[in-house]
Amino acid sequence: MATLHIGNNRTTEMAGDLTALGPVERLASGCGAQRALWFAEDGDVLVLPRALDADYVRYVTTLTGVRSQSLRIIAPAPGYAGPDLLTEDRLADPALRHEVRGALDGRAPQRVFAFYPDASVVALARSLGAESAVPGHAFLAQGGSASANSKAVFRAIAAGIGIPIAEGAVAGTRQEAHDAITALLDAGHPAIVKLEFQSGSYGNEILSPTGGLEPYGARRVEVLPDAAAVREYLERRWDWLTGGGRLRLVVERYYVGARPVYAEFLVDDHGVRYTGQGELLMAPVFDGVVIPVPGLAPDELGVLVDSCRSLCEAFRAFGYRGTMSVDGFLTRDGEVLLNETNSRVSGSTHLHDVIGPRIIGRPHVGRRVMFERGGWAVPSFGAAAGLLSDSGLAYDPDTRTGIILICDFTSVDGTVRYCVVAENITAAREVERKLLS
After folding, report:
1. DSSP string, 224-261
2. Is the confidence at residue 16, as pLDDT, over 90?
3. DSSP 347
4. How many angstroms separate the CA atoms of 225 and 227, rounded?
5. Which phi and psi angles does 53 have, rounded to 5°?
6. N or C, fewer C-beta in 10 Å, the chain?
């Protein structure tokens, strides 16, 4: 039986008004949905924002061993946010549902695997007679995806069950935000404010009582020397910080020099299964990932995995099912603090679920580092694959090292995203240096 893959890489719920995004950002988000192909098996059906480049399909399926001709890839008519985002109106389109039924030969899919599982995904599955094929469908149909991805809900649950989090507060009013921010700044600590829903650190801003702080994990730094400056900042930025007053604002202490880390799990009816951990690279917002976290001490790893697992168990009790990636950070003092849940396919799920176990191989993946970044400038995806092969840098299944191309962003900025597989992070960076030289 087939799996129905839905590449809704960016949704209104997770990013706000999608029509407010610029055309380049929309196109880049749509390109990120290409990663759905990594998860495909023979006979599966994929619903994506756009059709895939033939060279990309050939490259990925050669590595995964999937018969490309057995796949059905469907791109529905453009929606209210254009052709680059798989918005909820596109999933509700009767023409799409008819085409999906035909691709499935009238049979219900065995599983529905969405990047962002929400009520619109459940509605599509229901129209196919496959509501139960969506993991956690009852929870999602009632808007549960918002709770499972809310940074505000995260803080409430983490605090309630004793998970270590940064000092801070969830603010529903400007006064609450003012009080939380000034308390941190008056104590000499920078603060970070976060939109309740956003990804890749794009919804973050750092607030500092003094100048000289470079942004890391946020797009910008504001210097706020006193309470009056905090009040002026909130008046000026409140609509953006709260989505026009609809959402809550998260305020946390910002730890200079902290390393962003995460642990990822699969939450299902049988329990919570750990799938891996890594370090998030920022420049100044999300720029890549290293798996596993380089130099993480055993006790730090234990705190990270155990704390994240406890949080996943709490969300499992509420009814969430699916991938859950829990973010945190490692302070300079070696303290591990958590800061959000990503209850969706993360930017690393394809590494943990496919490239690690299926391509590198389960017996070997523990002895390899995966180092993924973007920005290799190439003429085309097909040319990139050829250049890798000619240079000897392409992934070698015998040595289980080399470069794997992940996504094609040539239509955005002339680059591709790549993953270096190596024995350690030093070797991975050396391979990257050769690639970019």
Report:
1. --SHHHHHHHHHHHHHHHTTTTTS-EEEEE--TTPEEE
2. no
3. T
4. 7
5. -65, 135
6. C
Closest Cα partner for 17 from 402, 25, 293? 25
Tokens linked to 7: 């590449």
Q: Is 170 exposed, middle or buried, given 0-12, 13-18 or 19+ CB atoms closer than 10 A?
A: buried
Q: What is the per-residue pLDDT across 172-187, written as a single tens digit (0 to 9) for each?
A: 999 999 999 999 999 9
In CATH, which of 1.10.10, 3.30.1490, 3.90.320, 2.60.40 is domain 167-253? 3.30.1490
Mean pLDDT score of the chain, rounded to an integer?
96
Q: Return the structure tokens found at 6.
A: 């839905």
Paired sense of beta strands 204-208 and 191-195, if any: antiparallel
Residues 6+ apart with CB under 8 A from 350: 35, 38, 39, 406
- Domain range annotation of the chain: 3-145, 167-253, 259-436
- The Cα-based distances of 99 to 84, 216, 416 in angstroms read 19, 44, 31
Distance of CA 404 to the CA centre of its chain: 19
Contact 275, 295 (CB under 8 A): no
Residue 436 CA to its chain's centroid (Å) = 25
Domain 259-436 grouped into CATH 1.25.40.10: no
**DSSP letter string over 286-336?**
EEEEEES-TT--HHHHHHHHHHHHHHHHHHHHHT--EEEEEEEEE-TTS-E
> pTM of the prediction?
0.96
Give the Cα separation of 311 and 305 in Å (integer).
Answer: 10
Contact partners, residue 84, CB within 8 Å, separation at least 6: 23, 26, 27, 29, 30, 49, 50
Among residues 273, 282, 171, 163, which one has the least CA distance to residue 219?
Answer: 282
For residues 215 and 192, the answer to whether their CB atoms sit within 8 Å is: no
Quick one: pLDDT at residue 21? 86
